[in-house]
Write the structure tokens for this entry.
Amino acid sequence: MGRVAVSTVSKTYGEPGAVGSVMALDNVSFEIPDNRFCAILGHSGCGKTTLLNIAAGFEHATKGVVTVDGAPIREPGWQHTMIFQDYALFPWMSVAQNIAFGLEMKNISRPERDRVTRHHIELVGLQGFEHKLPHHLSGGMRQRVAIARALAVGPRVLLMDEPFAALDAQNRSLMQDELVHIWQREPKTVLLVTHSIDEAIKLADYIVVMTRRPGRVKSFIGVDLPRPRDEDGAAYAKLKRKLRMLIHEEISDDQ
């Protein structure tokens, strides 16, 4: 379970048509099947994060709706969890306590919380760090905790807002590989916002290319490349050229 449908979603900040109002999204529609990985790609200001916030229930669309398995998303909930760029961990809680937090909010029994927490610590490779506080961890390790915390509550959909942007290039690549490994072990429907063409190709089954503001769907592309993705392969390079052209057209049209 976890089919996501974005149906004619528009978002305007301020009174529509009034002076100073800003249309962030305009009539955005696409659909993601269960347990597939979708990247939302575009320049800053194209409405990517706004769309993700609507999918998370943090904001409401001016028009249209985002649904999971046919049910409209109206408010935040454990069924659709968000992973942020800045980790958003509780600094006074250990790794294990951070991961268990959502389970406690769901009133899961202590023995089951401990079991699920141990499982997700193993899943993200943090054995031996269970009792460490976040400030004792590297950026990549903090993001592993954030991923484990989001997955522990058993969401249908995982929402990711540029989760690796703060990492250096080497750690970013390692975390991308680790995310694919985790996702293959425990599939979820994933929506990832990114500026990076390489990240989108490396991770996604589908790529939504957004226009400049107001954000519309410029192109919806299926990525039919075997995993792990061969970044030196001809098919990878062909898709990268296509995506670069689509993004470059938005720059050219804005000049």
